[in-house]
């Protein structure tokens, strides 16, 4: 009797959360699947679409540009920016964790400064960077031309040799603080005794980093990598506001393609199909993330 | 135990209350006053005159109050989502090209009955009705009209010995080249937003060029759509615009911008490093205020040839969900009147109202060109949307500017993509 009452209470207590999950996550996911199997425009109401089976997927995969767009998403937008964030983030976290900063009493200031890019809204950051990189009046070009490094301004966002690197720079600059802060928290959780013992055994800084810091940080690194991959893979704003996918379609990614398909071509179903493909790819990472966090908990 | 039961009940109750609140429709105050929402999408800095016109209406009509709502940029899909769920503004500001999309699912109220009860003044002189009357049903009323005209610095042209603006496209290339050469490369003879993005302004110039050369992207052959240009014609158009970059007339940085009034264009006009460009009236006025130099307008190359330029603009539609169609129609009539345009700084989409306006001499280029402009109706109703055509064309032209493709390849890519869409 008591057990039954307890379980009823448990259900009642968890009901709001379950309802919210169903409304906010389950229903949109199911509706996205339904849309991906329909021909429907954004101007039509729910239920007004025509069933097309896998037609939208055939249409999406039949686009000759699809694979280059997918490659951009996987390599430039996601893999490269995550790798750079991890490398620079780890370096910065180690620097911020160093006793030197504490001795000079600037640790708090340094950490605050590192956080600044993350405080800037994405749209503002992109607008500022576009202004910095402007091919004619940009600050960076004024420095380059003024110092004699180039004769005329470089159109960073208009030429294929520089455009992706520009986007990567913007993403890394804006998103680096998150990685730094998480890794810094990880570094702070490593007991000092381990470093002291290593020091007594004659281990230098590099050896201590390889044998103590990295193994201790591995669980945190795993989580950071997975979270940033998921965050970045789905990101629409950086490419859309910086280049709109140009020049040509050189910087188009799956998220921008989804938007174009759904809201320019009015093919909501095809947009949903791209969204579903993206979701499935990210689901793999989500599973890996859950495994990683479970391992960490254990 | 009691506490946890109480918490559970409270949590469920709070959730139920929240969900109930989400589902509710706002009710109008029961004061006998009809409150209408008019949603418009032009930037707030361009609608001061409209705000004044709405205020004047509200002062004169205490029983019918308009709430002006600004939602920029244009987002017809959002209006559709709201209307499909039974809500949305009573009166909607619509791009002419969007009327057909909103008419098809009956989101807009057909206006025949209202027009029969309270006829419009000068209905016969409305421009661009082919964009708002579909299958003999009027879904919206053309409200404002615009087009792209050449915007130039007379003094900069004079410095290069140029006394008249170019009258055709080859002459534009020639004159722009002479201006750049005469300045030793300091001045761009012709600057334009050549970005790959869907909304990049080059789309308009590209179409003007095509239409003036008697071809277009798609053709409607009695309901059967086909590609309206050959590969050679498209490649020629791409080569033409690419010449501005290869000959150093237009800075490469223009390939990264989308807006006709981008700060770099405005700054160029201001400091004289941009001699000619093109933009619509609202953008022209905004740039005029920004720069400390005299700007003039002239028709685009070929702009005085009928059908070589586009008649853009806005229409007013009434939401099919409105509870006050008669009052909404009264407001629409007021917005269409000369009274509104006394303060609202736009060209009316009515030939008769247009003739009643005092136009700034600097804007003569728009006024001269408007009677020869035609709407994008030639692309309406096709299986491929105008927005998709915009994106496709801007991307492929951009691909050539940036050296990713040659003009023949890009032209074929445009044709292939259009054919793919036309086949469904």
From TrEMBL, chain B:
| A Pfam family hit | SBP_bac_1
* Claim: Chaperone is one of the keywords in the record: no
Q: Identify the PROSITE patterns for this entry.
A: PROKAR_LIPOPROTEIN
Q: Which UniProt keywords apply?
A: Signal
Q: Does the keyword Signal feature in the UniProt annotation?
A: yes
Query: PANTHER family of this UniProt entry?
Result: ARABINOSE-BINDING PROTEIN-RELATED, DIACETYLCHITOBIOSE BINDING PROTEIN DASA
Protein name per its UniProtKB record: Extracellular solute-binding protein
């Amino acid at each position: 009797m008591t057990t039954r009452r307890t379980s009823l209470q448990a259900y009642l207590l968890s009901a709001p959360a379950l309802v919210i999950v169903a409304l906010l996550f389950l229903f949109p996911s199911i509706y996205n699947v339904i849309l991906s199997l329909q021909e429907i425009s954004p101007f039509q109401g729910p239920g007004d679409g025509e069933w097309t089976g896998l037609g939208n997927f055939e249409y999406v995969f039949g686009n000759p540009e699809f694979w280059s767009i997918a490659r951009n998403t996987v390599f430039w937008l996601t893999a490269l920016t995550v790798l750079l964030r991890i490398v620079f983030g780890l370096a910065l976290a180690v620097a911020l964790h160093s006793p030197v900063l504490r001795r000079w009493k600037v640790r708090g200031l340094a950490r605050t400064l590192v956080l600044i890019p993350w405080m800037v809204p994405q749209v503002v950051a992109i607008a500022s960077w576009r202004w910095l990189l402007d091919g004619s009046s940009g600050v960076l070009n004024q420095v380059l031309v003024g110092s004699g490094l180039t004769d005329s301004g470089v159109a960073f966002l208009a030429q294929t040799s520089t455009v992706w690197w520009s986007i990567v720079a913007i993403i890394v600059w804006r998103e680096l603080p998150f990685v730094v802060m998480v890794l810094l928290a990880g570094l702070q959780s490593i007991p000092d005794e381990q470093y002291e013992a290593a020091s007594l055994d004659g281990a230098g800084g590099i050896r201590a980093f390889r044998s103590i810091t990295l193994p201790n940080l591995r669980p945190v690194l795993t989580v950071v990598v997975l979270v940033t991959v998921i965050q970045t893979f789905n990101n629409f704003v950086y490419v859309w506001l910086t280049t709109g996918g140009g020049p040509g379609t050189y910087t188009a990614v799956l998220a921008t393609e989804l938007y174009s398909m759904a809201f320019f071509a009015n093919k909501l179903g095809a947009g949903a199909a791209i969204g579903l493909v993206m979701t499935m790819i990210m689901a793999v990472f989500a599973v890996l993330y859950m495994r990683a966090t479970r391992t960490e908990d254990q | 135990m009691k506490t946890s039961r109480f918490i559970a009940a409270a949590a469920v109750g709070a959730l139920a209350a929240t969900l109930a609140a989400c589902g509710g429709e706002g009710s109008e105050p029961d004061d006998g006053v009809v409150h209408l929402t008019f949603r418009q999408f032009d930037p707030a800095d361009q609608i001061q005159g409209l705000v004044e016109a709405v205020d004047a209406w509200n002062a004169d009509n205490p029983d019918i109050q308009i709430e002006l709502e600004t939602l920029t940029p244009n987002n017809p899909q959002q209006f559709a989502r709201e209307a499909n769920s039974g809500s949305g503004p009573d009166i909607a500001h619509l791009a002419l090209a969007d009327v057909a999309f909103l008419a098809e699912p009956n989101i807009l109220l057909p206006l025949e009955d209202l027009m029969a009860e309270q006829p419009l003044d000068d209905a016969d002189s409305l421009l661009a009705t082919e964009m708002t009357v579909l299958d003999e049903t009027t879904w919206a009323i053309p409200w404002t009209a615009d087009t792209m005209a050449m915007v130039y610095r007379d003094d900069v042209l004079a410095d290069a010995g140029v006394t008249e603006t170019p009258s055709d496209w080859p002459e534009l290339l020639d004159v722009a080249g002479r201006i750049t050469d005469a300045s030793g490369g300091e001045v761009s003879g012709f600057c334009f937003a050549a970005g790959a993005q869907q909304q990049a302004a080059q789309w308009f110039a590209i179409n003007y060029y095509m239409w003036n050369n008697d071809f277009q992207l798609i053709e409607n052959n009695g309901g059967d759509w086909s590609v309206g240009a050959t590969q050679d014609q498209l490649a020629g158009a791409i080569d033409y615009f690419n010449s501005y970059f290869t000959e150093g007339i237009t800075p490469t940085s223009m390939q990264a911008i989308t807006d006709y009034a981008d700060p770099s264009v405005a700054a160029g006009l201001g400091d004289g490093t941009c001699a000619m460009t093109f933009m619509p009236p609202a953008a022209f006025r905004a740039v005029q205020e920004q720069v400390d130099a005299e700007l003039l307008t002239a028709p685009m190359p070929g702009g005085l040839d009928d059908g070589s330029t586009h008649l853009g603009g806005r229409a007013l539609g009434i939401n099919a969900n409105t509870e006050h169609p008669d009052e909404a129609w009264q407001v629409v009539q007021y917005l269409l009147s000369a009274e509104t345009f006394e303060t609202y700084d736009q060209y009316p989409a009515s030939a008769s109202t247009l003739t009643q306006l005092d136009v700034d001499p600097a804007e003569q280029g728009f006024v001269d060109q408007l009677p020869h402009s035609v709407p994008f109706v030639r692309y309406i109703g096709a299986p491929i949307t105008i927005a998709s055509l915009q994106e496709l064309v801007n991307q492929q032209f951009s691909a050539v500017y940036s050296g990713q493709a040659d003009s023949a390849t890009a032209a074929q890519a445009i044709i292939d993509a259009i054919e793919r869409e036309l086949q469904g």
